[in-house]
Sequence to fold (300 residues):
Amino acid sequence: MRRALLALVLATAACSVCSACSSAVPGTAAAIPGAENLAVIDAPGTAAALAAVKTAAEAVFTYDSADPAAFGKTADAHLTGAAKAQYATLFAQVKSSPQRVRLTTRVLVSAALELTGNRVRALTVLEQVNGTTKGLATVAFTALKANGAWRLSDIAVSPAQAPPAPHPADGSPAGLRDSALTGARTAVNALASADSADPEGTYARAEAVAAEPLLSEYRRSKAAYVDGIRKGGVRAVVPPDLMTGVTSVTGDKATVLLYANLQVTDAAGQVTTKPVTATLDIVRASGFWKATAIQAVTGS
Fold:
């Protein structure tokens, strides 16, 4: 299954709206070796960079086919480098469509994965509206700042990118941030993975990473949870390229935005991909981060 950036745009051009009918453009972003990651740590800098990404993303993915001249102007104003070709590829099909497209896009939530000098990488959830039809897309944007202005330099649809090297858990703000991210990835692996051949083990692994109030929810529904896993006949695995970004961290509490292409194998051995975008609330107790709530990101 292909994830839908421009699900609505491509739907109006070619098919009914669904996540399986859009094209993904892979990004090329990579961590900067040796650079200090100031995401979240530099709160004003992070906020400014995310605001710039929001402005650029909403501008370039808002489109009216009745005003084709605006397409090039918007690209010139907000894009640089590889993003220009990626953007052109994403819009190639809709630009050739005889149908009128009036697409508006807004950023629902965003997390800075990496902030190093004049470069930011952000995990972003977009809501797109075309008439009465809506769709969501999860994208990793890289943006560069030059001459005081930020421009998108890379657009990764349905992203699968390795995280920056973690800061040591030395009690520093950066160490706390990356400790929370490591804990979040551990929790998501347990909460989102499943094995119908081992339903009790699946439940036990999820319970082990849960804290209140999520823990009580799991315990109340244990019988139904285990029975559902057993009857589901599937095996779900969280891939190692799970993407996570802290949206807030204070003391022993943090909220993390996550995206994963869950790999699901059915009883017949057929493997499909299930995209998952969610926010995860975690707390740290006795040196371990555990999940207190997990919520899928949905539109308005």
